[in-house]
Amino acid sequence: MSRPAPRAVGALLVLPALLAGCFAPGADAPAEGEQRLALALAFPPVAALSPFSDDAVLVTRMGVGETLVGLDEAGDPTPQLAESWARVDDRTVTLDLRAGVQFHDGTPLDAEAAAGALTAAAAASPAPRSIDGLGLTARAVDEDTVEVQLAEPDPLLLQRLAAPGLVVLAPAAYGDPAAPDPVGTGTGPFELTELRGASGATLTADADHWGGAPELDGVDVTFPADAAARTAGLRAGELDVAVNLPIAQLPTLTDTEVLSVPLPRLVSLSLDTADGPFADPGLRAAAVAAIDPQPVVDGVYEGRADVAEGLFNDDTAGGADRPAVALPPASDPAGASIRLATYSDRAELPEAAAVLAEQLRQAGFAVEVVVAEYATLETDLLAGTYDAVLASRLYLGDTGDPVGYLAADLTCAGSYNLARLCDPAVDAAVAAAADVADPQERRAAALRAEAAVLSTGAVVPVLHERTHTGYAPSVGGLATDPFDRLLLTAETTVGE
Question: Which end of the chain has the least Cβ crowding within 10 Å, N or C?
Answer without folding.
Answer: C
